[in-house]
Amino acid sequence: MPDAPTHAPRPTRPPRRPEEGSAYVIALLVLLLLSIVGLSLAWITQTEMEIGANERVMQRLFYAANSGISTSTARALTDNDYSSTEYSFPDPGSPLLNATLDVEMSPFYPILQTPCHLCEINDRGGGYGGLNFKMINHAVTATALRRRGDNAIYAQKVLTSMVEVQPWQSTTESLEAADEPDELAKIKF
Predict the structure, then answer these.
(1) What is the model's pLDDT at position 18?
(2) Which domain holds residue 146?
(3) Residue 15 vs residues 4, 10, 12, 24: alpha-carbon distances, Å
(4) Within a domain: residue 13?
């Protein structure tokens, strides 16, 4: 009689547990969470870089406008020139092609005149050679513009200042240029 085939006993598997494969799902969730955090940090960093670049542009415009006020003051004190003026120069620090920085100054306009209390000459009666020196407050506005190559305005900063000069003797001829209504409209209060 032929031998009956003998079957090797199959190894029995332990029963499947419900936690099996959960490490894979947890690893995927952690990877997804880390990806979201990484993308958020990249977005925040990009936003902070743009804010920093805008702040740098505004600081440059502020200093350009402040220089415009100083230039107007110097022109009035040295040349007795109270008229408005404009300056334009290339902006080499700009990533924009052919960018310029334009500074427009209003007239250096006297708004308040009072006797000069520091001038002993005025106390002598009639001043020096018949001139009375005064303390004069002037208003001036400087507008700094950053323009692109196509003349479009990219950024703007307006700065108004009141400058007190004493002792000072102004001439009426120099002030006539600043008395035009269009020129006075350039001064912002």
Answers:
(1) 66
(2) 23-184
(3) 31, 15, 9, 20
(4) no
